[in-house]
Write a structure and sequence with these properties.
The complex is a heterodimer of chains A (321) and B (425). Chain A has 321 residues and is α/β, with parallel strands linked by helices. In chain A, the strands form three sheets. Chain A has a seven-stranded mixed beta sheet with strand order 3-2-4-5-7-6-12, sandwiched between helices. Chain A has a five-stranded mixed beta sheet with strand order 9-11-10-13-14, with helices on both faces. In chain A, strands 1-8 form a two-stranded antiparallel sheet. Chain A is globular and about 60 Å long. The mean pLDDT of chain A is 96. Chain B is of the alpha+beta class and 425 residues long. Chain B is built from eight helices and 19 strands. The N terminus of chain B is likely disordered. Classes of the chains: A alpha/beta (321), B alpha+beta (425). The interface between A and B is small, with 11 and 11 residues.
């Protein structure tokens, strides 16, 4: 065990994989000499060389398309989108080529696309988004979103070793704020949900940075035993764990940092409505970002993103119901 | 209260509460002549065939007369009271095509005129479409499911949610507050008996057997006078049942009941009633289970359509009926129509009994304690050895008027075969 930040855990997983498997290579904008916009790959080019830590042009379609080709011939590329927002430029390659290759040609595309996502630092509309639901809606792509340092490492190992294209949602706000014990060496975290805190009166279901918000908001909620379920994986979605929590708690608050409409939490709500109806003791409540772009203005950004106070209030309301 | 000529009198009669019940006793009247009563509101309490129950008013109206006094016992069908319906003495307005639209509640009887009749309509008035607060209560899916599983009347549960809403926690707390008495304990090991008190005080005032005791006594004596009782016993190796029982968390009774039902389907002559010279074999098995009410007596609720249930289903129904019997919540439907009865006083370590047939049925099966005994078992090659097995003795009392010993023996052999070869279901 060693203590790492979320960012160090991601670096550690990449380094371990590069050392363990010659097929693994990294591609992205400024990830080589500069060490990445967030310094995830700081020092990598010195250890692994420019053939395995490749600086690319500012062309997301080119990065992902090249990675797909490399994967088809047996490599295990890991692409970094400098910001998750930029994935829209590479959308066609990811959604139409990578996601459907197995169905069309029977070929595996074992690529990982790292998506530094999320807001909270006045990054504005192009540098703060949570686009994971786009890929949940697109068959053939797995989507994972760690909330702890340990899961950041374990999920990245599992993603690189998975034979499918995987979108790895790494939350920028957690990079240096979240720190935790991480097992040494390579370990794979399964694509399943995790009970971050057990409870019985109400469950907050969420993932990514909102797990931290949910834990803080419900730490002391008038003595209520509030469960927090960290989804960790959005595709596949761990419906058993979700329904178990619903059975236990009967009251559900779902928190998304993403824009509300058709967010991951909307899918969770639909699942509960369909499969968990007889266990419900109140309406399924969602807390999410309204359907607006993320503003630059710090007070406005604070107003749109779900925070501790909003989650607290939603939980209090539902507990009293 | 005067009645106009437009009144109609509706009879309230002593209801038929069970197949063998011929009469009932008035325990209390809830109304007096002249009182208004809404349809389905309780008009009186009666006691019949071990069940205390309430008689609902068949219609809304005013109690015109009460014909049977408290403590009086009358035959089923006897008129107990009459309820006057109609416009109750209020003169009907003359028919006038230009008259304004009638009030919405004209279909229901008009309220009694003024202070001459002080008693307000009892309970929730349902006659005029107005709904009371409790009618408006809505329950979430989980609350309804838990209530259904535990057979809880949600109107009795206090709600602590917003606006008095019943939350899951409320219904769970309600269940917690009323713990179920344990069912039969299978272990033969008992603590030392408590030394008897020096001079036990009589539980009932001298000279006063409780009504339930009197009724049980009458039933038992009548059965012994009516039927030609014989009792046959058979020894059964319950080892396989014990294994399944522990695995499924059920009592041996559920398994014996399941095997009995299957045996009754093979030997329908025992799933029958004999009333006078009329011997009726029944298709469905409505299985009576004798439930002890402690010092108060005994009651035999019936699992209707028991042949359609699995062993788990029987276990759940037995538990439910026993709980409701002890909570005095059985309805008349729960005790009617039995075609065969099982009694199970096994928890005290007794091993044999001669049960009395529950009239008008023709047989009753007795399950006592399951105990470990050394027994001789023969393997497939014919070699004998002594083994420790969980054994019980099933006793069948049967009516020699309807059956002969061979039929009883064949039936018991079938039950034994099913229990010893238990393979699930």
């Amino acid at each position: 065990m060693s203590t790492m930040t979320y960012l160090q855990a991601i670096s550690s997983a990449l380094r371990d994989e590069l050392r363990a498997d010659d097929r693994v290579l990294l591609m992205g904008e400024d990830i080589g000499v500069f060490g990445g916009a967030f310094k995830v790959t700081d020092g990598f080019v010195e250890e692994f060389g420019t053939d395995r830590v490749m600086d690319t042009p500012l062309a997301e379609a080119g990065i992902i398309g090249t990675a797909i080709g490399a994967a088809v011939v047996g490599m295990r590329p890991v692409c970094e989108m400098q910001f998750a927002d930029f994935i829209s430029c590479g959308f066609d390659q990811l959604v139409n080529v990578a996601g459907k290759m197995h169905y069309r040609q029977g070929l595996a595309v074992p690529i990982v696309v790292r998506l530094p996502s999320g807001g909270g630092f006045s990054g504005g509309p192009f540098h703060s988004q949570n686009p994971e639901a786009w890929f949940m809606h697109s068959p053939g792509i797995k989507v994972v979103a760690p909330s702890t340092a340990s899961d950041a490492k374990g999920l990245l190992h599992a993603a690189i070793r998975d034979p499918n294209p995987v979108c790895y949602m790494e939350h920028k706000h957690l990079y240096r704020r979240v720190r935790g014990e991480v097992p040494d060496g390579v370990f794979e975290t399964p694509f399943t949900a995790r009970v971050a805190r057990a409870g019985s009166d109400l469950v907050v279901i969420t993932y990514g940075a909102m797990v931290q918000v949910a834990l803080e908001a419900t730490e002391d909620l008038d003595g209520a035993a509030v469960e927090v379920l960290d989804l960790r994986s959005l595709v596949p979605l761990d419906s058993d764990a979700i329904l178990d929590s619903v059975t236990r708690c009967s009251k559900v608050v779902i928190v998304d940092e993403a824009n509300s409409t058709c967010a991951a939490g909307a899918q969770v709500a639909a699942l509960i409505a369909e499969k968990g109806f007889e266990d419900l003791d109140g309406p399924v409540v969602r807390v999410s970002t309204p359907d607006v772009p993320i503003p630059f203005s710090p007070p406005l950004e604070k107003a749109v993103l779900p925070g501790v106070d909003r989650v607290k209030e939603a939980c209090r309301e539902l507990l009293a119901y | 209260m005067s009645s106009s000529r437009t009144d109609t009198l509706v009879d309230v009669t002593m209801p038929q509460m069970g197949v063998s019940v011929a009469e009932g006793t008035i325990v209390a009247w809830r109304v007096e002549p002249g009182d208004r009563i809404a349809a389905d509101a309780t008009i009186c309490e009666i006691s019949t065939d071990k069940i205390d129950t309430e008689v609902p008013a068949p219609v809304s109206g005013v109690v015109a007369e009460i014909l049977v006094a408290v403590e009086e016992t009358v035959e089923v069908g006897t008129v107990l009271a009459r309820i006057a319906t109609g416009d109750l003495g209020v003169p009907a307005p003359p028919a006038d095509p230009d008259a304004p639209a009638p009030p919405a509640d004209r279909g229901a009887p008009a309220p009694p005129p003024g202070p001459t009749n002080g008693a307000p309509p009892s309970g929730a008035s349902t006659g005029n479409g107005h709904r009371t607060a409790s009618d408006r209560r809505r329950y979430s899916p989980v609350v309804q499911r838990i209530a259904a599983e535990h057979d809880i009347d949600l109107s009795a549960v206090e709600g602590t949610g917003r606006g008095g809403r019943v939350r899951k926690q409320d219904v769970l707390a309600f269940i917690e507050s009323a713990p179920e008495p344990p069912m039969h304990i299978e272990s033969p090991y008992r603590p030392d008996p408590v030394p008897a008190a020096a001079a036990p005080a009589p539980a009932v005032a001298p000279g006063g057997l409780s009504r339930m005791r009197r009724q049980i006594g009458e039933h038992m004596k009548r059965s012994l006078e009516t039927a030609a009782h014989c009792t046959s016993w058979i020894e059964v190796d319950m080892s396989r049942v014990e294994e399944a029982r522990i695995r499924l968390g059920l009592t041996a009774l559920s398994f014996v009941a399941r095997a009995t039902i299957a045996a009754l389907r093979e030997h329908p002559a025992l799933n029958a009633t004999l009333e006078g010279e009329e011997y009726t074999v029944h298709q469905d098995v409505n299985l009576g289970i004798a439930v002890s009410l402690g010092g108060d007596g005994l009651i035999v609720p019936v699992i209707q359509g028991a042949h359609e249930l699995s062993v788990e289903g029987i276990g759940a129904r037995v538990k439910d009926l026993a709980r409701r019997a002890r909570a005095r919540e059985l309805s008349a439907d729960d005790v009617r129509g039995g075609t065969f009865t099982i009694t199970n006083p096994g928890q005290y370590g007794t091993i044999m009994a001669t049960p009395i047939i529950n009239q008008p049925q023709v047989a009753i099966l007795d399950l006592e304690t399951v105990v470990k005994r050394p027994v001789v078992i023969t393997d497939a090659d014919g070699n004998d050895s002594i083994a420790i097995r969980s054994m019980t003795i099933l006793g069948l009392s049967w009516d020699h008027r309807a059956l002969d010993g061979a039929m009883a023996a064949q039936f018991l052999a079938t039950v034994k075969r099913l229990l010893e070869g238990w393979t699930g279901s």
